[in-house]
Amino acid sequence: MSSSVWKFSRTQGTKEGESFAAITKTADTTQSDPDFAGLIVRCAPKGKVDVLVALIRPFPPRSHPQVTIAASNGGTLTVEASMAAAGAAVLLPDEVSAFASGKWQTTPSLAVTVKESDGEIKGVVSLTGLREAYNSLVANCGQ
Q1: Strand, coil or helix: what is 139?
Q2: What total of structural domains would you count in the chain?
Q3: pLDDT, tens digit, for every residue of 78-128?
Q4: CA-closest candidate to residue 50, choices 22, 80, 11
Q5: For residue 94, what are the domain limits?
Q6: Measured in whole angstroms, how far is the alpha carbon of residue 86 from the centre of its chain?
């Protein structure tokens, strides 16, 4: 199954020579809405790591959707998020990044619900291989 692989990518930043490393995992299409693309974990400035939910159908750029994340091995978190990438990605708050570096590495999958005034988008993402992918991401962050 191709959805079990975290894809490593590097995108150019706005400044000369600036680039951002990221790992992405596509949604489990059998358990997700067609508008739910997957999860993105990327390097952010000052050594931070951002976690984003990738969507096919963008939300308005100024919206602040409610995102509920339920780990398959227990524990649910609801946060207010903001939009990134012209509304096609939902940027989760910093507190969520700590889960990607810790708890989620032993969690089989996440169920994610993104609620906005005009509806909600649900998806499931397998976290298999996150520990290795996260470690290689962090090793590439400062480059």
Answers
A1: helix
A2: 1
A3: 999 999 877 889 999 999 999 999 999 999 999 999 999 878 999 999 999
A4: 22
A5: 2-141
A6: 15
